[in-house]
Amino acid sequence: MKFSNRILSMQYSPIRKLAPYGDAAKKKGIHVYPLNIGQPDIETPQQFMEGVANYKDAVLKYAQSQGLDETIESFIKYYKEWKIDFEKDELIITNGGSEAISLALTTICDVDDEIIIPEPFYTNYGGFAEAVGAKVVPFITKAEEGFHLPTKEVITSKITNKTRALMVSNPGNPTGVVYTEAEVRMLADICKEYDLFLIADEVYREFVYDGLKYTSALYMKDIEDRVILIDSISKRYSACGARIGLVASKNKELIAQIMKICQTRLCVPTIEQLAAANLINTPKEYFEKVLMEYEARRNILHEKLSKIPGVVCEKPTGAFYVVAKLPIKNGEDFAKWMLTDFSHNNKTVMFAPAEGFYATEGLGVDEIRLSYCLNTEALSDAMDVLALGLEKYMEIQGTAQI
Ligand SMILES: Cc1ncc(COP(=O)(O)O)c(C=O)c1O
């Protein structure tokens, strides 16, 4: 029996594919620090749990395909605080930001169409593009430039008559980059000049450090009908399990087209939507505390990584990830080895090999992505364990390969 070429060409997520090795290590009684996945350990605001109790109906019904009124209204209110005005028919509640990405690509891409993305990029963009038969066309951003965008010419050189959109995550996963206003302006100019959509994944909007200013793609008023906003409560409120996200656009026709698929998939879970609606009542101090916590984690991670001989990594300014280049041949082999062959004081670290965050063959092979979703004490210990593991691995492998 035959499987589709689309599914056969898809990779397993580099974020999750080493999990069986992690589980095996745990079965052996080893504590595994999970730096592979962007699953925050921050407590979900109480407002979410209180919102669950707002469901009073005796029947757990389908919600409207667009989303519950309460949830839509709460997002509209949230965006107002960011000086972004949405009307009700400009947004749709989705099963996480993940579904929002999938809906956006399905709606604008035919088979063989192309999406231009800076690499390294959130690995699942590749999977979602492949699932609709579209192709990711990457342009390289470099660690030594803090993963900022290259010149306009570099980006436009990738445009063909099959290009449908530029897609960016800002702040960036896995890079931690926060684009300047000039960079967002440049993306807007390109989209305008070449008649493209700008898929703006802003799920990490709140996670910007060092007092940097955040520029949403929607601040570029002259292209607002080209912007497809991807959003989610997963990271913002540490509510990954709720699976509540959103796709939004000032382009009402686009939203109307997306609705066709949304009606087919019926709706997003009702109780989670109600609970998410109540998150709008989360006090401001929640974000202030969370931001301080992540900034402290970022500092520890970067300081410790920088001290490991041979490791190259720039200090990230947003989201909660860092890409580090290691003095080894293959990040995936090392990641597996850390789970199968190494522990220190009965502890080891799981992280994501970075190769899967690149579309260009051969790039990122000696890099890894670490997420700093652990408290400072655990993170600090995890980094010590990683440093010892790397030292041992290099000893075993011999220095010839370095
Ligand atoms: C950049 C980016 N976009 C979208 C998502 C999807 O998040 P969710 O489906 O949980 O909303 C993630 C998750 O890690 C992400 O990092």
UniProtKB/TrEMBL annotation:
Signal peptide: none annotated. This is Aminotransferase. It comes from Clostridium punense. The keyword Endoplasmic reticulum does not apply. Keywords: Aminotransferase, Pyridoxal phosphate, Transferase. Residues 32-341 form the Aminotransferase class I/classII large domain. Belongs to the class-I pyridoxal-phosphate-dependent aminotransferase family. Its EC number is 2.6.1.-.
